[in-house]
Design goal:
The protein has one domain. It is 46% helix and 0% strand. The chain is built from four helices and no strands. The radius of gyration is 13 Å and the shape is globular.
Amino acid sequence: MIIPIRCQSCGKPVGHLYEKYTKDLEKGTKPKEALDKLGLERYCCRALFLGHVELLDTVAQFKRS
């Protein structure tokens, strides 16, 4: 739901890069170029960004009884 602060595999801090990544994608930059620009070289960190699906808005619609 929310991007992790650190990569789950290598432990590199990546949470602060997610906002920059989404802004680059909104501008029309390709995901590969955006990840290269952010300096994410390890495949585990790149997969974390590419596989992330933002579900916070979806989950927020439901109330807990």
